[in-house]
Design goal:
Order of helices and strands: HEHEEEHEHEHHEEHHHHEHEH
Strand order of the largest sheet: 2-1-5-6-7-8
Radius of gyration: 20 Å
Helix content: 40-55%
Length: 301
């Protein structure tokens, strides 16, 4: 996924002359760095997370996208937004597509967690496919690090959707030159594993079932953690733990609470309050809930 993002960014900068990119606030920590190193000098953010409501800052997002100059690149998380776990609804995606069309903005989807949001590959691909049905030209970077467990193999791809097939030969030629100068050839082993699974109906179905098991476990841990936190009488609303989706949760914990959990409870999360739900298990969920309750009670405003 990282290589696909960089290749796409390099192409947009060198060949298309793009210089303005928007990404969500907050976003994956590498988005800005990738586009900066590709030569983009206008790195801008659109509002996404509302810390007071612990939900999507929808009106702010719409305002920022409406104000984006024509030809701007808009990075969109296809599903399981990292780091908030807050995804747009289908109706909201339709409105985002409307703005991109009206303002002549270029969608660049980042799909790092397909299958890990809903448990269904097709559901998690809905936003990208919808934009294609609307006639958009777009890029979509995809990572197989998570849903195939291939972190060290660097397996992913860059999907390019364009209207005129006649441009494909020239496009591939220019992208090949970019790749040749950056890393020449990618490792083959991970890509061959993915190809083997996707091209074999039995393996493909087994993989889909494995993804469903993984995502279901995460969803179960979300429900269990929320219930335990609420049963302990922890101050505040905790519904966001189950309304968010995917591997991560923006808990709403303050930096002070996070540092307390790290030093006193050996629970490690980002200072922003982002926690990996994959680290919550049946064996530690009670401990995690009690620790969060203690931190919130101790430092509540």
């Amino acid at each position: 996924g990282t290589g696909a993002l960089r290749n796409g960014a390099e192409f947009l900068k060198r060949i298309c002359g793009s210089n303005i990119v928007y990404y969500s606030d907050p976003t994956w920590g590498n988005h800005g760095l990738i586009f900066k190193n590709a030569g983009f000098t206008e790195l801008r953010k659109y509002r996404y997370w509302d810390p007071s409501a612990k939900s999507l800052a929808w009106e702010g997002m719409m305002e920022d996208l409406n104000n984006a100059p024509a030809k701007s690149i808009i990075i969109l998380h296809a599903c399981a937004h990292n780091p908030t776990g807050v995804d747009c609804t289908k109706e909201q995606w339709e409105k985002i597509a409307d703005i991109c069309h009206e303002k002549d903005l270029f969608p660049f989807f980042d799909c790092a967690y397909q299958g890990f949001a809903s448990g269904c590959l097709d559901t998690d691909a809905w936003a990208v496919r919808y934009f294609v049905t609307r006639g958009f030209e777009l890029f979509c970077s995809q990572s197989f690090s998570k849903n195939f467990g291939l972190y060290n193999e660097r397996a992913g791809n860059l999907t390019i959707v364009m209207k005129d097939q006649a441009n494909m030969v020239n496009f591939k030629s220019q992208l090949t030159l970019i790749i040749r100068a950056m890393y020449s050839n990618p490792p083959a082993h991970g890509a061959r594993i993915v190809d083997t699974v996707l091209s074999n109906p039995e393996l493909y179905q087994e993989w889909r079932e494995c993804i469903k098991i993984m995502s279901s476990r995460i969803i179960d841990m979300r429900s269990g953690l929320r219930k335990r936190i609420e049963d302990l009488g922890t101050p505040g609303s905790w519904s966001h733990i189950t309304t968010q989706i995917g591997m991560f949760s923006y808990t709403g914990l303050t930096e002070e609470m996070c540092l307390f959990l790290q030093k006193e409870k050996s629970l490690y999360m980002l200072k922003s309050g982002r926690i990996s739900m994959c680290g919550v298990t049946p064996g530690n969920i009670d401990y995690v809930a009690k620790a969060i309750n203690e931190a919130v009670t101790k430092f509540q405003q």
